[in-house]
Amino acid sequence: MGGMGGGMGGRGGGYGGGDMPDREEMERMRAAMEAVVRAPERLIIVKADPGLILTDEEGVTTRLALDGSKETGALNGVTFESATKWEDGKLRVERKFKGGLKLVETYSVSVDPRLLTVSARIEGGRMGGAGRTTNRVYEPREAADAR
Predict the structure, then answer these.
(1) Is 82:94 a contact under the CB 8 Å cutoff?
(2) Contact between 110 and 83 (Cβ < 8 Å)
(3) pTM higher than 0.90 for the full model?
(4) Mean pLDDT throughout 91-116?
(5) Could you tell me if 104 and 92 are in contact, meaning their C-beta atoms sit under 8 angstroms apart?
(6) CA–CA dist 109, 122 (Å, integer)
(7) Which of 19, 56, 60, 120 is the most exposed place for a label (fewest CB within 10 A)?
C-alpha cells in the first residue's frame, strides 16, 4: 500500500471535532488494512494441540487457540491482542489493536461445493478504511488438481 500524501505531518489541531491520527494509529491501520487486502493464494490448515496452525505460501504461520483465550501477537510489526472462538458454526478470530481498531476474520466451510471462505473486516478506529470487508475463497487442493 502506498503512503499517505505530503503535508499531513503530526497531530491535527482538533478541527471538526477530532485530531488527526498520530503515527502509531496510522501504522496500526496500515497493518490491519494490509491483512485485509492480502489474499494468500494457498492456505494450509493443520489441526494442532490445542487449536489450528495456518500457513500461507510464503511460510507465514498463524497459531489459533480455539477456546476464546486471549493471546498476543504482531501483524507487520504492530502488536495486538486476539481471541478465537466458534460462533454459529464459524471460526471467528478477533484482533484488537491499541486505540480501538479491530480486525475480525471469520472462517466458514461449505459442504457442496467444498469451500473455505475467509471474510476479513476492519471495525472501529478513527480512519476512513474502517468497515471494509474482503472475502477470500479456497477450495481443497484435491479439487483444484482434478481439473
Answers:
(1) yes
(2) no
(3) no
(4) 90
(5) yes
(6) 21
(7) 60
